[in-house]
Amino acid sequence: MLPPSRSRFRLSLIVATVAGLLATTAGAAGAAPAQQPPPQVCALPIISLACQPDTVVLDGTRLTKNRVGLLLGDRTLRTSLTDLLKQADAALTKGPWTVVDKERVPPSGDKHDYLSLAPYWWPSQPATADNPQGCPYVQRDGVLNPETTAVPDKAERLTAFSSIYQLSLAWFYTRKPEYAQRAALDLRTWFLDAATKMNPNLDFAQGIPCKNDGRGIGIIEFAYTFTQVLDAARILDAGAPGWSKTDATAMKGWSADFLTWLRTSKNGTDEAAETNNHGSFYDMLSAGIALYAGDKALTKQIVTGAEKTRLDHQIAADGSQPEESTRTRSFHYHTFNLVALTRLAQIGRHVGVDLWAYRTPEGGSLFKAVDHLLPAATGGASLWPLPDLNFLQYAALDSVHAAADAGDAQAKAALAHIPAPPGGDLYPVRPAAEQLDDISVTG
Known about the structure:
By secondary structure, the chain is mainly alpha-helical. The chain has helices at 4-28, 39-42, 60-71, 75-91, 153-174, 177-192, 223-237, 245-264, 266-272, 277-293, 296-314, 322-325, 330-349, 366-371, 374-379, 397-405, 409-414, 439-442; strands at 115-117, 121-123, 137-139, 204-207.
């Protein structure tokens, strides 16, 4: 039990918080929008909708309401935040990471270019002096070639981007400056500082030795994790110490250049033409960057277009996903594609498009796609009718959360019966789907 002085302080803070929220909400109904408070005000532990982040996938209003819920002692939020802070605290002493920190030089000769190897391709011949790489390479779907870990960019990207996201959220909820300052350092090191920054392209992602330097499908390595970085940057924009307007402008410029590359390069256009989860993630990534860069018209165009090009093709009447059903890790890929589509739906709501409400000509929908997973998500592998090399029940959790948020009663009822992933259920404090069974970790 809190001492009386602490209780009075907490009560007064809650009263001030609620009053601030009411005042801000009332002001929003007026003719002129409220001006953003000075950054130093938003860095304080007070709560106001005027200080909420203008996020890309996440809902800034919900994040702000979460802070109120934490002050009021919401147990679910507090448990989730405790788990998030464990990861953020670990991230305080890691990194920063950079693409120039690798021995292997990309085909361009520039270590500032991101480099990775195709994860499921293996040498078919013994290595010899005449054929040191064991060419030609052949595909073994779903089986990770450990050779790919010798190039660190992919693994460091995953750690860097998730750390940036966790640190920014930790700052948002606690207002402890060390979290924001570390996130800002990690962002500048990977994207902005001349000596260490990555060039805004993925020309050499998922190359296959003896076959090609890079492929469009390598873009998926940035897919949802880069949109987490965009949300992190927007959170830091809301008055975080250590992150300046110059940083924000530079990050927006880097992202705009990357979007141009995505929409004009051969790798980008190849990925846009993919019809499975790769196409879904391409749309989600492009829409998220467009929104971050300020092009709401393009964002809306991408999300609306996905109704026909993605949902019509990918979701059957019963909610199954034919494109993902033939994979050796079919449950993983069903949940993986829904990470892209549910995040795209969240981006859509920022521009007035409700992807959850869309019904395909066959009667499929995002709701049906999530509901199709529920028997296995709640009951285990025996209730999944397709092969999966490494079935992980919790892989569906975030997409089920997203469907429940969107109004799916079956999904809401199922949540209590789905096990949490290692590290806990973080969705309550970072409410957007993640790939909980990342192949680079669990493969």
